[in-house]
TrEMBL record:
Transmembrane feature ranges: 15-37, 58-78, 98-125, 137-158, 185-209, 229-251, 283-301, 313-332, 344-364, 376-402, 414-436, 448-471, 491-514, 587-604, 610-627
Enzyme Commission code(s) on record: 1.10.3.-
Primary role: Catalyzes quinol oxidation with the concomitant reduction of oxygen to water.
Top enzyme class: oxidoreductase
Domain Cytochrome oxidase subunit I profile: 36-554
InterPro entries according to UniProt: Cyt_c_oxase-like_su1_dom, Cyt_c_oxase-like_su1_sf, Cyt_C_Oxase_1, Cyt_c_Oxase_su1_BS, QoxB
Cofactor remark: Binds a copper B center. Heme A3.
Family (UniProt): Belongs to the heme-copper respiratory oxidase family.
Key words, A-Z: Cell membrane, Copper, Electron transport, Heme, Hydrogen ion transport, Ion transport, Iron, Membrane, Metal-binding, Oxidoreductase, Respiratory chain, Translocase, Transmembrane, Transmembrane helix, Transport
A GO BP entry: electron transport coupled proton transport
Name by which UniProt lists this protein: Quinol oxidase subunit 1
Organism: Xylanibacillus composti
Cofactor: Cu cation; ferriheme a
Molecular function via GO: copper ion binding; cytochrome-c oxidase activity; heme binding; oxidoreductase activity, acting on diphenols and related substances as donors, oxygen as acceptor
Length: 659
């Protein structure tokens, strides 16, 4: 068993050969650069072994930017291929592989790590804590995610990419119709990354329930903390379903079982049901935190507290519950019958209600507010109309009977990009512009930010708006080409041109990071936006231990009111400073990520004995961990005092210090 050696490296395609060379050169470049700058030790000590939530968050975000680049390239390649009728730039097989990797990477390796990264950076600060509940587990989450992502990405050059769509439906995804190993990558890599996500969910639930600072009741939590809590609950509810489904898929593909293969008495639609039982909640796993980000940004830049806080919380909980009972809307055409389809039509449409409530809450927050159109706020402003288009077309798709027309057309593709790009990508950009100073101690350039914004938003609309009309005219999704006679040419061309503008917007964002890293002012206050929540009561960038003394909260938006009242809570007195206990770094999570990755790789290639041997490494790591009695270190008083003085005593700082 196992793969033949001549199939190991993908050869014969100039595009892939070019990428192989580029990847090899980049790797060499990184190794050479690190060696030349003598940064290996630094990399290991400060980053690879870190258990600091802020650094872990930053590593998530860096990975997400890279994955956005890869997923975006896939998107552009597809747009290039369909820019003209009968193009031969990509063949059918290649197109299949590209929309599959694009979908998986965008959802699981771009949207998820971006949001989990921002949660990591922000949540402990927002609730007034020194870290998450389980810092080392947090690092393990990251390295499992990263191991899974890397494993998935190498499929492109070693062994072959999965090609059965991001939904990987059976029977297509089974061994019979996809005998290559591409779909093994899907089953194994998503499993590894998924375990990481599940652990993150558990970690954030415990963190938010147990580590809030004094006085911060649940109903005094910032909205981003609420959305993170509910998202984590959905993660814990939904990801195990995916774990099981992928496990069964692995058995079907690797060990000849027949859970999903019709020929062996299995049920192919069982996969579709399990997939969407996870997959639909997954959409809310990425959308809810994004709503939380918009809530923070809109409140701050309207200089008002969030309108309808309670109804917002109720809506989030409502969306979370409903998200579990709508999954069949992804396959009305399965033939479950009118009664079943009607039930799922109604539950799906019901989601529009709490979502509408949230929309109005954001609008009412802005009403009579003194709005500041910073780049972060611009993303929130653009989100509202764009997301409404995504939502309204969603209600159209929700109607079971009508869906027989829309199903599998580009109308659907346009719909979910109108949900995911404004609902997730705009939010991530808003969040990055907003919280950047907390992460890095300087701001992203606002002028470049505006360029980034306009190019991206215009490009996005020009790319995806035509797809609605293409879909209504009958253009199907996942089709690598079309004929001149179809009459689709013009709309496809406009859409392709739009994607170039979109890409230019992303390029400006990357340039902004580069420019700001080199030139931005490093002398910025802790609270540069005049914001409302506790993360702004820290230095920019945040001190390693977050808070010298944990803040005490007596209402919602407490930091804002402390500033108004010039409250003594903002002043650190010398006698309040004490030693701060911190967890030690650990190399174990990184090692476990590597071991999981290697074992996964061997499993993908169906080298079972080797995979089993590598998996023993996981147990070895667990054993080592059980004998780890090290319980951290203390940051000494004197050092805390020095650090706090350095930022609190600066002019214009709202956080004070008295000796
Ligand atoms: C950045 C610009 C983007 C472009 C140019 C783009 C373009 C495309 C295209 C052309 C398709 C395939 C249409 C077809 O033939 O069926 C597609 C599918 C898809 N896209 Fe995007 N997309 C972008 C961003 C995103 C983002 C941000 C997400 C998610 C967060 C996303 C998720 C998906 C998914 C899940 C699919 C379905 C894949 C499948 O059929 O298995 N895309 N996209
Ligand atoms: Cu759904």
């Amino acid at each position: 068993m196992g793969i033949k050696w001549d199939e190991f490296f993908i050869t014969g395609d100039p595009l892939i050969l070019g990428s192989q060379i580029a990847i090899a050169l980049t790797m060499l470049g990184i190794v050479a650069g690190l060696t030349y700058l003598k940064r290996w030790k630094w990399l290991w000590r400060e980053w690879l072994t870190t258990v600091d939530h802020k650094r872990i968050g930053i590593m998530y975000i860096i990975s997400a930017v890279l994955m956005f680049f890869r997923g975006g390239m896939d998107g552009l390649l597809m747009k290039a291929q369909t820019s003209r009728p009968e193009m031969t730039f990509l063949d059918a097989q290649h197109y299949n592989e590209i929309f599959t990797t694009h979908g998986v990477i965008m959802i699981l390796f771009m949207a998820m790590p971006f949001l989990i990264g921002i949660m990591n950076v922000v949540i402990p600060l927002q609730i007034g804590a020194r870290d998450v509940a389980f810092p080392q587990l947090n690092a393990l989450s990251f390295w499992l995610f990263f191991g899974g992502a890397m494993l998935f990405n190498i499929s492109f050059v070693i062994g072959g990419s999965p090609d059965a769509g991001w939904t990987s439906y059976f029977p297509l995804a089974g061994k019979e119709f996809s005998p290559g190993i591409g779909n093994n990558y899907y089953a194994v890599a998503l499993q590894i990354a998924g375990i990481g996500t599940l652990l993150s969910g558990i970690n954030f639930i415990v963190t938010i329930l147990k580590m809030r600072t004094k006085g911060m009741t649940l109903m005094r939590m910032p909205m981003f903390s609420w959305t993170t809590l509910i998202t984590s609950v959905i993660i814990v509810a939904a990801f195990p379903i995916f774990t099981v489904a992928l496990g069964l898929m692995t058995f079907d593909r690797l060990y000849g079982t027949h859970f999903f293969t019709l020929s062996g008495g299995g049920l192919d639609m069982l996969w579709a049901n399990l997939f969407w039982l996870w997959g639909h909640p997954e959409v809310y796993i990425v959308a809810l935190p994004a709503f939380g980000i918009f809530s923070e940004v809109i409140a701050t830049f309207s200089r008002k507290s969030l309108f309808g806080y309670k109804s917002m919380v109720i809506s989030i909980v409502g969306i979370a519950l409903l998200s579990m009972v709508v999954w069949v809307h992804h396959f009305y055409t399965m033939g479950a019958g009118p009664a079943v389809n009607s039930f799922f039509s109604i539950t799906t449409m019901m989601i529009a209600v709490p979502t509408g409530v949230k929309m109005f809450n954001w609008l009412f927050t802005m009403r009579h507010g003194r709005i500041r159109t910073t780049t972060a706020m611009m993303w929130a402003l653009a989100f509202v109309p764009c997301f409404v288009i995504g939502g309204v077309t969603g209600v159209m798709l929700a109607m079971g009977a009508a869906d027989y027309q829309y199903h599998n057309t580009l109308f659907l593709v346009a719909h979910f990009h109108y949900v995911l790009i404004p609902g997730v990508v705009f939010a991530v950009f808003a969040g990055l512009y907003y919280w950047w100073p907390k992460m890095f101690g300087f701001m992203l350039n606002e002028r470049l930010g505006k360029w980034h914004f306009w190019l991206f938003v215009i490009g996005f609309n020009v790319t995806f708006m035509p797809m609605f009309f293409l879909g209504l005219k009958g253009a199907v999704r996942r089709s690598y080409t079309f004929s001149v006679e179809s009459g689709f040419s013009n709309l496809f061309l406009v859409s392709a041109l739009g994607s170039v503008v979109l890409a230019a917007g992303f390029a400006v964002f990357c340039y902004n990071i580069y420019w700001s890293t080199r030139h931005a002012d490093r002398n910025i206050p802790g609270d540069p936006w005049n914001a409302r929540t506790l993360e702004w009561a820290t230095a920019s960038p945040v001190q390693a231990y977050n808070f010298a003394k944990l803040p005490v909260v007596d209402r919602l938006d407490a930091f804002w009111h402390m500033k108004k009242a010039n409250s003594p809570e903002l002043t650190l007195k010398q006698d309040e400073i004490a030693d701060i206990h911190m967890p030690n770094n650990s190399g174990l999570p990184f090692v476990m990520g590597v071991v999981f990755g290697v074992a996964g790789f061997l499993l993908v290639f169906e080298w079972h004995l080797a995979a089993a041997a590598a998996a023993l490494g996981i147990f070895a790591c667990l054993i080592v961990r059980s004998f780890d009695y090290n319980d951290g270190y203390h940051v000494h008083k004197e050092e805390v005092e020095k650090t706090e003085k350095a930022w609190r005593l600066r002019e214009g700082e709202v956080n004070h210090y008295v000796g």
